[in-house]
Amino acid sequence: MNTQEIASVTDAQFVAETAPGTGFVAVEFSAEWCPPCKIMAPILEAAAQEFAPRVRFLTMDTDANPATMVKLGVRGLPTLLVFRDGEMVDRIVGAVPMNVLRERITRALHS
Description:
Layout lengths: L6 E2 L2 H7 L6 E7 L4 H17 L3 E7 L4 H6 L7 E6 L2 E7 L4 H12 L2
Parallel strand pairs: 1-3, 2-3
Antiparallel strand pairs: 2-4, 4-5
């Protein structure tokens, strides 16, 4: 079984982590105080395991790293942005069940 930790990313690291050539990267924008973000945590962990190594999952604390959130127009938490080689291919806003997350990521992988 593939295993993958969900690493934290900062504003300073974001461009390098999602640049062309990085493959599929899913970045969750969340905050410690956000109840729907807490609901999504175990779902994202399960998705990270299921999609490893095809998709890397990262998380960004929007309180500590607001610049990327503003730049990308993230207005609600949690928001999951899916990138393919530096290009955003999907935006999932709010807490969603695993089956919805799986469907959206699978669609992005095959687009």
